[in-house]
Amino acid sequence: MSFPLLTATAALPALGAVATAAVPAARRTAAKWLALLISLGTLALAITVLVRFDPGGARYQLTESHTWIRDFGVRYELGVDGIGVALIALTAVLIPFIILAGWHDADPLETGNRRWRPTQGFFALILAVEAMVLISFEATDVFLFYIFFEAMLIPMYFLIGGFGDRAHAQGEEAAATQRSYAAVKFLLYNLVGGLIMLAAVIGLYVVAGNFSLQQIAEARASGSLHMATSTERWLFLGFFFAFAVKAPLWPLHTWLPNAMQESTAPVAVLITAVVDKVGTFAMLRFCLGLFPEASRWATPVILVLALISIVYGALLAVGQRDIKRLVAYASISHFGFIILGIFAMTSQGQSGATLYMVNHGISTAALMLVAGFLISRRGSRLIADYGGVQKVAPVLAGTFLIGGLATLSLPGLAPFVSEFLVLVGTFTRYPVIGIIATLGIVLAALYTLVLYQRTMTGPVKPEVSTMPDLRVREVLVVAPLIVLLIFLGVYPKPVTNIVNPAVKHTMSDVQKKDPKPEVEAVK
Amino acid sequence: MNPVNYLYLAGLLFTIGATGVLIRRNAIVVFMCIELMLNACNLAFVTFSRLHGNLDGQVIAFFTMVVAAAEVVVGLAIIVSLFRTRHSASVDDASLMKL
Amino acid sequence: MEKLIALLIAAPLLGAAVLLVGGRRLDRVGHWIGTLLSTASFVIGLLLFADLLGKNAEHRTLIQHLWTWIPVEGFQADVTFRLDQLSMTFVLLITGVGSLIHLYSVGYMEHDERRRRFFGYLNLFLAAMLLLVLADNYLLLYVGWEGVGLASYLLIGFWQHKPSAATAAKKAFLVNRVGDMGLSIAIMLMFTTFGSFAFGPVFGHVDGASQGKLTAIGLMLLLAACGKSAQVPLQSWLGDAMEGPTPVSALIHAATMVTAGVYLIVRSAAVFNAAPDAQLVVTVVGTVTLLFGAIVGCAKDDIKKALAGSTMSQIGYMVLAAGLGPIGYVFAIMHLVTHGFFKAGLFLGAGSVMHGMNDEVDMRKFGGLRKYMPVTFITFGLGYLAIIGFPGLSGFFSKDKIIEAAFAKGGTEGWILGGAALVGAAITAFYMTRVMLMTFFGEKRWQPDAEGHEPHPHESPAVMTIPMIVLAVGSVLGGAFFSIGDRFLKWLEPVTGHSEGHSPVSAGEVTIATMVCLVIGVGIAWAQYGRKPVPALAPRGSLLTRAARRDLLQDDFNHVVLVRGGEHLTRSLVYLDHSLVDGVVNGTAAGFGGLSGRLRRLQNGFARSYAVSMFGGAALLVAATLLMRAV
C-alpha cells in the first residue's frame, strides 16, 4: 500500500490543532509559530498532491479506501479530481496567510496576562477548520463528506462568536452580543441546511444501499440502480439546499454579512474564501455527479436565483456603510457567478466556475485582509470614518486598490479570466441571463470604487492622519497574494490544465454538450 | 370466589391511590397513596398469575415489594429532610428542584 | 523582427513596475526612467516601422505568438500580437506623442512630490494602450481596453486629495465600464457565432454569419467605442476627466485613449461592412456627438473643458467617417493621427498657460497672454489653425476628406451627414477662435487670488516648450505629408480596404463650402470676443448657452435618473434585505422562541400537575389500545 497522501494532508492540520491547543498558556508566541509551521507543512503536502496528480489520468486519483461502518456501507474513501486538487491547493495556500494576518487578533487585551489561553484556541480552531475543509474536498463517500461538512460548523462557530474586532464603537458588551447573534445565526442556518441534507443522505442510502460516490455513479450508468424521477429530484433538493446555504445563494444569504461583519478579518476570509467553497464544490461533485437528471431539471430556477444573487448582492454592496459587510455582499454576488457557471452546464462555465472559486478565494483574501489591517488601525468598520488614507499610508491604499480591482475583475488579474469564462459559458446557452449577469461587472466597479473613493481619497481625516503604513508582516501577507493574482491572471494555464479534464467528466455526468457556434471558424 | 373480583378490587384500590396522589398535598399521604397503587398492581399481578396458572405474576409481585421497600427508604428520607428545612410536608412547596 | 513586438509593451510595463514598486528611493530619477523607457518603446516602434516599409505592401503583417492564455474546452484565448499597418500607425502615434508628453511632464510635474508615481502611471498607460492596439484577438484587446481605463482612472484622480478629482476618476471608470459591458457582450456574441474571437477567424468567416448576429456584434462594439471615445450617450465623463493633470488630458483624453473606440470600429471593419444597420447607427452616433461636443465646447469658460468638448466633437468626425465604411476608414484614422498632433499640442499649450498662471483654468481670467508666452502662443496658434482646417494645415486635409466622404454616402443620408459635418466645421471654427481670443488676445483680465498672489505669467521651461514645438510642426505638416500622393491611403488600404464613392458634390465644392463655414465661424467669434472686451464674469446667456455649460443637461439627467434612482433602489434593497429576507428568518426564530415559551409553562415544578399529565397520558394510551383492538 502506498503512502496515504490525502489522509496525511488532512491529518497534519488536525494533529497540529491538538498540538497548538496544548501549548502552555504563557508560550503564546510558540503556539503561533507552531500553527504557522503546521500550515506551511500542509501547504507542502498539498503541493505534493498537486505534483502527483496527473491531469490526464483517471478521474479520481490518490484514492484510499477502507471499510468504516460495515453495517451501513460507510467507507473511508478519499480521492481527488482536478477540481478537488485546485481547491485543496487554494485552502492550503490561504491558511498560512490567514494565520499570519491574524497574528495579533487573539492576543490578550492587557499585556502580561499569563493565563490567557484563547490565543492557542484561535490558531487551533483555524487549523481544525483547515483539516475538515481538506477532507471535505477529498471525500468520495457521501457520509464521510457529510460528517466533516457538518463538523466544520463547530470550530467556525467558536471562531465567529469568540473573536471579534478589538476596538468597537458601541463598547465590548454590545459587540459581544452582536458576535454571538452572528455566530448563532451562522450555526442555525448551516445546521438547518445540514439536517435537510442528512435526510437526503439517508434517503440516498435507502435507494442505493451504499454511500460511495463512484459505486453509485457506476451503478446508475450501468442501469443496475434505477432512481425514480421524483426520488432523484427530492434527494437533489435536499443536497442542494445545504450547499446553497453554505455557498450562499439568495435568499439564503443573510447569515454571511453578519458572520463576516462580526468576525475578525482573517476569520471572515476563512468563511468566504475557504469554508463557503465547500458548498459550491459540493454542488459540482455531489449534485451534478449523483443527480444529473434532477440537476438539469432544476437548472432554470437555480440560474435565476444565481442571477438574483449577482445583481442583488452587488446592489446591496453599494448600499453598505460597513466595509466588511460590503465585502460580504460582494462575495454573495461572486458566489452567484460561481453557481451560474456550474449550472450553465457548459465546459467554459464549469471550468470558469472552478477557476472562479480559486480566484475569488485569493482576491477576497487580498481585499479583506487589507481591509482588516485598515480597520485594526482606526478601530472602526464604518466607511464614513475614513478618508484620505492614500496620503498617509500609500502602500496600504495601493494594495487595497489592487484587491478592489481584483474584486471588480479587472482584466490582467485572475478573477477576470474566471468571470469571463462563466459569462461566456452562460451566454452560449442562455444569452439573456448572460447579458443580465454582465451588469454585475458595472455594479462591481461601482461598489469597489465607491469604497476606495470614500476611504482612501479626499482630504485626510484627522483620525487617520497618524495611521502607520503596512508593516513587514502585513506586506508579507499581501504581496504574495497580489503576485498570485497577477500570475493567474496572465497565465491561468496551470489551473485550467488540471481543471479541464475534471470538467469534462462532470459534463458527461450530466450528459450535456457545449452548444455549437453558428459558423465553425476554428476546427 | 371468582378470581376476577380481585381484579375489580385492584382497580378500585388503584383508583383510590391515584386520586389521592392527585388531590392530596401532604407528601406523606401522597406517598401512602403511591404505595396503595403499587399494592393494587401487586394484587392484579397475583390474580393474573392465578388466572393463567403460572408463577410469573407472583415473581413480579415480589420484585415490586422489594423495589417499593427501597423506594420507601429513599422517599421517606427526602420527605424528612424537606420537612426539616421548610417545616412543611406540602409537595407544592417543593416546586423548584432546589432547597 | 516580430520578436520585437513584445518589447514595445514590455519596456513601458517594466517602467511602470519599477516606478510603482520601487518606492521613494527612485523619487529623484523616476521621471527620467519613465521617459527613457517610453522613448525606448518609440525607438523599437521605428525599427519595426522601417522593417514593415521594407516589405511588400501585402506582407506587412507581423504576428508574434507568446503563450496560450486561457485554454478551456472549445475556448481558446492566446497572447498573440499582430503588427500591421493599422497597429503600426497607432504604435508610432502612441509612443511618439507619449514620449513627448513624458518629456513635457518632467517640467510640468516638477513640483509635485508624487512625480515618480505619475510617471509610473503614464508608463502603465502606454503599456496598456500598446496592448490594446497590438492584440490579435478581442479578449486580449479587452485587457488593454480596461488597462487604459485603469490608467485613466489613476491619472484623472491623481490629485486624490481633491474630492472632485476622485469623483471624476470614478465617474470615468464607471461610464467606461458600461461601454466595457458592450465589448464583453460583443466578444461573447462572437464566440457563439464563430467559436472564436481572434481577428483572423472572425473576419474570415463573416460571410457565413447571420445578419442579426452581425448587427448585434456591431452595435455592442459601438457601445464599447462610445464608452471609451466619449460618444453620445456615454460622453459625460470626458469633461470631468479634465480634473487630471494637463499632460494626462493631452495624452489620454485627447491624443490616444479616447480614440481607441475609432480603432475598434476600424479594426472590426469586416464586421461592420457586413452589417449596414450597425454602420448607420455608427454614423448617427458620430454626427450627433460631433455637434454635441462642438456646442458644449462653445459655452465652456474652462479652457480644458472647452478643449474637451472639441475632442469629443473631433472624435465624432472620426466615428462618422468610420461608420461610412470603406470610403471613410482611412480618413478616420488619418484625422485621428492629425488630431493626435494638434489636440495634444493644444492641451500642452493650455497646460503651459496654466503653468504660468497659477493653475488658473478660467479663460475669462486670461487675456493678452501672447506677449508673455510667445512660444506657447505660436504653437497653440498653429494647433488652432490646424484644428479649424486652415488650408494647408493638417486638419484641413483630414477633415475635408471626411466631409466629402459623408456627402458621398449618397441619398438623403449623405446630405444630412455631410450638412451636419459642415455645420460642425463652422462651430469648430467659432469655439476655437473664442478660445484663442479669450486666452491670448485682448486686455489682461487676471486679478490677485484670495491670498493676494498676483499671477506672473511666464514662458514655460524648454523641457515643456520643445514637445509643444514638435507637435506644432506635426500639426502643420502632417496633413500635407500624408495626403500628397495619397501616402496614408496607400499605406493603410491593405488593412482597411478603400473604395471611392460617387459624391453628389465635387471635392472642390466641398472645400469651398468648408472655407465658407470656417469664415463664418471665425467671423462670429471675432465679432463677439475680438471686437469688444470679454466680460470677466460670464453673462447669463441664452437658454442654449446655459444648457451647454451644463453639458446639455446630460449630467442632470444622469444624476436624477441613475444616481438618485440607484440610491433609492439600493437603500430600499438594504431595507428589504434586513426586514424581509432576514425578517422571515428572524420571524421563524421568534416564532419558535414563543412556542417554546408556551411549552415551558407546562414545566411548572408541581409534582401533582406532572402526575395529572402522566395519568392523562396513560389513560390516552389505554384508550387508544382499546380502540385499536375494537377496530
Automatic annotation (TrEMBL), chain A:
Residues 1-19 form the signal peptide. It is found in: Endomembrane system; Membrane. InterPro entries: NADH_Q_OxRdtase_chainM/4, NADH_UbQ_OxRdtase, ND/Mrp_TM. The keyword Hydrolase does not apply. It is a multi-pass membrane protein. GO terms for biological process: ATP synthesis coupled electron transport; electron transport coupled proton transport. Belongs to the complex I subunit 4 family. This is NADH-quinone oxidoreductase subunit M. It comes from Streptomyces griseofuscus.
TrEMBL record, chain B:
Its main location: membrane. Its EC number is 7.1.1.-. Coiled coil: none annotated. It comes from the Bacteria. The keyword Cell membrane applies. GO terms for biological process: ATP synthesis coupled electron transport. It is a multi-pass membrane protein. HAMAP family: NDH1_NuoK. NDH-1 shuttles electrons from NADH, via FMN and iron-sulfur (Fe-S) centers, to quinones in the respiratory chain. The immediate electron acceptor for the enzyme in this species is believed to be a menaquinone. Couples the redox reaction to proton translocation (for every two electrons transferred, four hydrogen ions are translocated across the cytoplasmic membrane), and thus conserves the redox energy in a proton gradient. Belongs to the complex I subunit 4L family. NDH-1 is composed of 14 different subunits. Subunits NuoA, H, J, K, L, M, N constitute the membrane sector of the complex. This is NADH-quinone oxidoreductase subunit K.
TrEMBL record, chain C:
It is found in: Endomembrane system; Membrane. The chain crosses the membrane at residues 29-50, 87-106, 118-135, 141-160, 181-203, 248-266, 278-299, 372-394, 414-441, 462-485, 505-527, 610-628. Residues 69-119 form the NADH-Ubiquinone oxidoreductase (complex I) chain 5 N-terminal domain. GO terms for biological process: ATP synthesis coupled electron transport; electron transport coupled proton transport. The keyword rRNA processing does not apply. GO terms for cellular component: endomembrane system; membrane. Pfam families: Proton_antipo_M, Proton_antipo_N. InterPro entries: NADHpl_OxRdtase_5_subgr, ND/Mrp_TM, NU5C-like, Proton_antipo_N. Residues 135-417 form the NADH:quinone oxidoreductase/Mrp antiporter transmembrane domain. Keywords: Membrane, Transmembrane, Transmembrane helix. One of its GO terms (molecular function) is NADH dehydrogenase activity. The keyword Transmembrane applies. It is a multi-pass membrane protein. Signal peptide: none annotated. This is NADH-quinone oxidoreductase subunit L. It comes from Streptomyces griseofuscus.
